Amino acid sequence: MRSVKLGGHVVGADERPFVIAEMSGNHNGSLDRALAIVDAVAESGAQAVKLQTYRPDTITIDADGPAFRISSGHDLWGGERLWSLYERAHTPWEWHEPIFNRARSHGLVPFSSPFDPTAVDLLESLDAPIYKIASSELVDLPLIRLAAATGKPLIISTGMGTVAEIAAAVGAAREAGCTELVVLACTASYPAPAGDSNLRRIPVLADLFDVVVGLSDHTPGLGAALASVALGARVIEKHVTLDREDGGVDSSFSLNPAELAALVVESERACAALGGVRIGPTGAEREGLRFRRSLFVVGDVRAGDVVSAANVRSIRPAGGLAPDAFATVEGRSFRVDVPRGTPLTWDLI
């Protein structure tokens, strides 16, 4: 069975889903709000909280022009300059340590997506237990090799990626020494239409690359994430905010704390519901077997009376002959007196 260890949690086919709450820029520029998000994640039962580690100058340059602007028709950030968006959304580096400390105090696994070598250096100084490669960085093989060389588990998100690009990223990670690897299906649009999720690729990714698989989900709500569990996802990443009405950069497709708690419970329930391929009664159905229908004597009868629909019927509980046996016993005679409420058995007729 494929399995990996993420921050002390074993993650694999026979384990409950590992739920990652992505803070992104939903701290809205406030460390207090960031810490409150960590507290809410801990209360939800999720196992991990994730940041994004970059500064505007490590991810782009302060420039204008079409190449450096989000397309005007974008649902959330239309027309915005990359520099301005990243300035608004980034998590200041000096916040990382208090956020990591708060997460660890709750027993959460804190980690991040680095976007350049200086981010890896910062996260190594904080002993980050996992690294996540964002979808847009899937093609940044030097960054993947650097993160993999730390010896930490690596989670690679594959939004926009072709099979060849994913194979190159997985190969780079393994060649650099990564032995614990997770590959996430992802649709890198914000928000993502549910119809673009293509969840059936999840088992394909697992088999192609022999990895634990999961879903980085940007669709609204829980539907796609829960459906992914049935297809083998054992790592689920969703953005989280305290309140979608507060206007965080990703708030429109983020879960609020109550929804995150529901995802934790329902994803675990979905995983348990998969069970095995056995067909037949389960242990939990043992009591129900007692109340299947069977043939019972429903009126007091005397020896010699004829079996008829008036004195024998198919009712609950079990214990008598099968209901289909009525056609065989109808018209036969009772050989003994039988009180009402007695299961009909062959020795009575």
From TrEMBL:
CDD domains, per the entry: SAF_NeuB_like
Annotated ranges, domain AFP-like: 294-349
Gene3D superfamilies according to UniProt: Aldolase class I, Antifreeze-like/N-acetylneuraminic acid synthase C-terminal domain
InterPro entries, per database record: AFP_Neu5c_C_sf, Aldolase_TIM, PseI-like, PseI/NeuA/B-like_N, Pseudaminic_synth_PseI, SAF, SAF_AFP_Neu5Ac, SAF_PseI/NeuA/NeuB
Pfam families: NeuB, SAF
Protein name: Pseudaminic acid synthase
Protein source organism: Luedemannella flava
